């Protein structure tokens, strides 16, 4: 029997990634993603629905998400569905569908990375000369 398990989602983080480290040193990041869908009803009324998806990331991907993402960050996620099942202490069966991250793309661009989470050095901004003009090829605005 053939099967295929692939999910591609684009949305915004609902919370900062929660990162834990296992005893073996593996980092695990858990975060939520809000995915919006806009549609029109039969009465031509514009509606919007939001789906909240829990996502787990491992290893260097977890570290990167911790470093560059925070609540509200736009993110493109590629992964696979996983169904977790357990029994509560009072005997109820529970289940939860989530996504295991396999690949992702930061969607906000370089300027969208939160400064407080980035440890990259930023280049000094050019300063105007006394006659209030910028000097050098890098200062041309086009």
Automatic annotation (TrEMBL):
Keywords attached to this entry: DNA damage, DNA recombination, DNA repair, DNA replication, DNA-binding
GO molecular function, one term: single-stranded DNA binding
GO biological process: DNA recombination; DNA repair; DNA replication
Motif (Important for interaction with partner proteins): 137-142
Region (Disordered): 108-142
InterPro entries to which the protein is assigned, alphabetical: NA-bd_OB-fold, Primosome_PriB/ssb, ssDNA-bd
Entry keyword DNA-binding: yes
SUPFAM superfamilies xref list: Nucleic acid-binding proteins
CDD domains xref list: SSB_OBF
Pfam families per UniProt: SSB
GO annotations of cellular component type: nucleoid
Compositionally biased tracts (Basic and acidic residues): 132-142
Self-association state and partner proteins as the record states: Homotetramer.
Functional summary from the UniProt entry: Plays an important role in DNA replication, recombination and repair. Binds to ssDNA and to an array of partner proteins to recruit them to their sites of action during DNA metabolism.
Stated name of the protein: Single-stranded DNA-binding protein
Organism: Oceanipulchritudo coccoides
């Amino acid at each position: 029997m053939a099967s295929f398990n692939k999910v591609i989602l684009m949305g915004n983080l609902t919370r900062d990634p929660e990162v834990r480290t296992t005893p073996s040193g593996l980092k695990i990041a858990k975060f939520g993603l809000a995915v919006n869908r806009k549609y029109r009803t039969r009465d031509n009324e514009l509606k919007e629905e939001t789906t909240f998806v829990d996502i787990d990331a491992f290893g260097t991907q977890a570290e990167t998400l911790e470093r560059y993402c925070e609540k509200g960050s736009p993110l493109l996620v590629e992964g696979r569905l996983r169904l977790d099942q357990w029994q509560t202490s009072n005997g109820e069966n529970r289940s939860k569908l989530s996504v295991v991250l396999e690949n992702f793309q930061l969607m906000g661009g370089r300027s969208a990375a939160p400064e407080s989470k980035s440890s990259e050095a930023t280049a000094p901004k050019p300063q105007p000369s006394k006659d209030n003009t910028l000097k050098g090829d890098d200062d041309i605005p086009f």
